[in-house]
Recover the amino acids of this structure.
């Protein structure tokens, strides 16, 4: 029996969520869109456009931006849909995910899997035809890491699931850079590292809030297996590395003082919140940090894009 069809890993019965089958075309479309987890896609794409601006050192061609975003959305949507299919049994016993389309039987599981694979294939083909092959390969690599490394390989087995598997969310910056330059340069790798070190603090803060959900589902998230205090200390460590790499990027990519000040201020506040979480491991503090982590990523990448436009081409 596959993990996608296995029953809950806890003896506690599933949360009572009455089936709500899609009854109209609009309901069906809404359900399929829900499978792709649009809010997660937004978070991935918020790093793509600023990265393209930095690579161009100006505003990139609008068509190139649109084509890259369309392809990235297809790839990310495919990854999230396959994730929804594989984790249906987990979603059924978690409060946070109990309203997802597969849990409510609004989409047949087999159709969800086909839809996810189709989106992934379309994303690769679209990017290969409209942008370049390297961008298509990088975007698809993100999908494969998310599905096979994170979802299937690590999530149910290791508390390092979000550390290693979280690398999937770093590929949009590589794809955005490659879309403009046709290659992957050192600054792009540093942006990859910024998102890589950002991901565990961001997700672990949310996992502190929903640790009982993960415990019920038998998922070994760090707050479940090691406790809130240890998780908070790890968040501090990853935050320090994130801030350090963000400053390193400023030097390597020849950012001006505008970006460096923004990186210091934004990273300094992130570090303060992580230290506050060590002292106060409450769910309220964890969610405060989680919400700020989203703002941090958007503001940091916005600052680098503005800096690149104002400074113009190098040399």
């Amino acid at each position: 029996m596959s993990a996608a069809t296995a029953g809950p890993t806890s003896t506690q019965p599933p949360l009572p969520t009455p089936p709500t089958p899609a009854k109209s075309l609009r309901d069906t479309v809404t359900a399929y869109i829900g499978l792709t987890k649009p809010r997660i896609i937004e978070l991935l794409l918020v790093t793509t456009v600023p990265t393209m601006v930095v690579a161009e050192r100006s505003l990139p061609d609008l068509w190139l931006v649109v084509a890259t975003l369309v392809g990235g959305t297809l790839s990310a949507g495919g990854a999230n849909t396959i994730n929804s299919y594989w984790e249906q049994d987990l979603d059924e016993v978690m409060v946070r995910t109990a309203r997802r389309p597969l849990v409510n039987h609004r989409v047949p599981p087999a159709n969800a899997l086909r839809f996810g694979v189709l989106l992934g294939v379309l994303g690769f083909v679209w990017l290969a035809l409209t942008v370049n092959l390297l961008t298509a390969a990088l975007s698809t690599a993100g999908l494969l890491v998310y599905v096979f490394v994170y979802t299937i390989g690590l999530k149910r087995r290791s508390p390092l699931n979000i550390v290693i598997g979280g690398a999937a969310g770093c590929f949009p910056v590589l794809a955005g850079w490659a879309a403009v330059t046709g290659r992957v340069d050192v600054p792009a790798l540093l942006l990859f590292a910024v998102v890589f070190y950002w991901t565990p603090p961001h997700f672990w803060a949310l996992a502190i809030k929903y640790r009982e959900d993960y415990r019920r589902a038998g998922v070994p998230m760090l707050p479940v297996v090691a406790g809130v205090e240890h998780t908070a200390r790890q968040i501090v460590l990853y935050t320090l590395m994130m801030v350090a790499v963000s400053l390193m990027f400023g030097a390597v990519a020849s950012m001006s003082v505008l970006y460096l000040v923004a990186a210091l201020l934004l990273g300094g506040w992130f570090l303060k919140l992580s230290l506050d979480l060590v002292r106060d491991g409450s769910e309220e503090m964890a969610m405060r940090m989680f919400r700020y982590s989203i703002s941090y990523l958007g503001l940091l990448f916005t600052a680098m894009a503005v800096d690149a436009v104002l400074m113009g081409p190098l040399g």
